[in-house]
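[Meeting: bench + compute handoff]

Bench side (C.D.) handed over the final construct sequence. Compute side (W.E.) agreed to return the predicted structure before the next meeting so the bench team could plan truncations. Sequence as handed over:
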Amino acid sequence: MIPTLVLLPGSPWPVLPPGIHAAGLADVSAAFATNAWRRSLYDGLVDACGRLHRAGCPTVYLDGSYVSGKPKPGDYDACWDPSGVDPAKLDPVFLNFQNGRAAQKAAFKGEFFPSSMMCADVGKAFVEFFQRDRFTGIQKGIIAIPLTADPLLSGKVQP
């Protein structure tokens, strides 16, 4: 379940409360795909999650202004758990970080990093880095999307 967003002193818009909050893709849609632009970003996320799921990825962690109260986020940020991923089935775009991850943004309208990859700017793995507000440094939350159990990816429901 996605909790109610909270205000952090010094942050320009509400964010998720601290923690890793498990939610399915349908929950993400209900909470954040609230207008045509946000729906377009969500559609890119679903496409990327499907590709990662087919490669064996168990979980995607969703972050960025998309999972905040920002009225028009530019994109979303995500990291994916590499455990169990078959490199032969992984779309190479997920490992293409050139030109500010332009290929990822073109394909999915968002950016993806392996969750265990170190963010050079702060010396922490992306799954940890994503749990800090970029404006204040205060701890905030992210969403964990368990791909193996998501009905949307198993074909049981339509987006």
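W.E. noted at the follow-up: Residues 36-54 form the longest helix (19 residues). C.D. will use this when planning the next construct.
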